[in-house]
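During the second year of the project, the team shifted from modelling isolated chains to modelling whole assemblies. The rationale, set out in the original proposal, was that interfaces cannot be judged from single-chain predictions alone. As a representative example for this report, we include one of the complexes processed in the last quarter. Its constituent sequences, exactly as entered into the pipeline, are reproduced here:
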Amino acid sequence: VLPRENCDGSNAVNHPRRRREGIANRGPHAERTLPPPDTKEEIMLRPILVSLLLVLSAACAQVPKPQLQAYSEAFQAVQTAAGPMIADYAIGERAAAMAAMDAPIQARDEGGNLKFNAKGDPVMVDRNPNGYFADFRPTDTAALSTIGLPPGADAVDRALRGIAAYNDTLVALAEDRNVDEARGQLRSIVTEVGALIPGAEAATAVGQSLAGLVVDFLKPAVQQDNRAMFRQLVLDGHPKVISLIHLLRDQSTPQYAATIRNLSRKAQDEPNGSEAHKAAIEKIEAWQVVFADYVTLLTVMETRLDQLELAVRNPKSQPVLARAQAGAVELRSYADGLRRSIAQLRAKP
Amino acid sequence: MNVNRNNEIRLELERQIAELRAQRDDPGSDAATQRSAREAIRVLQAAQDQLIGDDSAVFVARVNQALAELEEVRTRHNLDAVSALGRSIERLRAAARAT
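Output from the structure prediction step:
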């Protein structure tokens, strides 16, 4: 049996005889000192301390599943609500871009410089004097392209998909999906190797059992690693997702303007009091409610993410757990309210 | 974010459009005044459309930045595929196929 070595390869202090005799690693003329003997209290406290440390490390390693569940539900409610809203946003945004293409443009002189009148105001001319678009500009792509969404609506969609990918990673870690994934892949390899090597078929069954054993053996370490990664991902990702939520919330103002764009044109083009004017205004008011519910859902989602982050930071915080569980009920009523608002809006002529 | 500023501009445009609508729809206004109001409304509406495009451009840039930061967090520890073990196994599988 080899004596245990230090990091530098020496075994001076840790050598059993030297330690027993209290020889410090301080050169050939070092004094002999006896280490203080362990007291009875210390010996009795040791198992308690070890147990306590084990309990604490287990507590730190726990995934706060109620908070994760509450946050995931909030995100799903936002995503569900955002779907039809993005479609209407895209219609309004595209219509605005199309109208901008048809709007007068500033005239240029023969040298290509922008023209101004005597008062310094820009001289505007019709961009399409013959009734068709005589040129193509890359900036027109948002209005014309039928591939994908216009930029603003597409950015809302991408922001939500980015958060969804982050959430999927969190859930995968919380559920230890990689353990089952590894088990399946390992078994698949054994089968493939059995098929590739002549005479190895008989060993395949043994190999399958072995693959299962290997994964079972590695499982606790993988799970522990998953908990650590989950914690880090929540702590590091929290400010980034919050910033995306704030961007979505701030964007609700221009998104609303784009969404009601066609309706507001109708309201502006018709005289006050006319049936068409009233109908447009009713729909605009319904969109107000939809956007209010959408922003409420975003706020709930932010709160839930804060609670998840807090639970990860303070694993033993029971009040946080209670708040997350209580909040789950109110979210469903928000989501129902939003669905009702959109249904009412769609039902209107 | 310039959303608040643009929203103020948007509301100001709405106010001006409301004044012009009153001129356009006033039975006492002459035809020239009504036509002039109609044209002015079109210009203001075009400005409203322009704001929608401007807001989108700013938003897209900010979302791109925020998404890049979130993706950096997600992939910092190779968490995109979640399973480091799974990836190692995939390499083994490829090696087995090659033999």
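Confidence is low (pLDDT under 50) at residues 1-28, 49-60 of chain A. The first strand of chain A starts at residue 105 and ends at 106.
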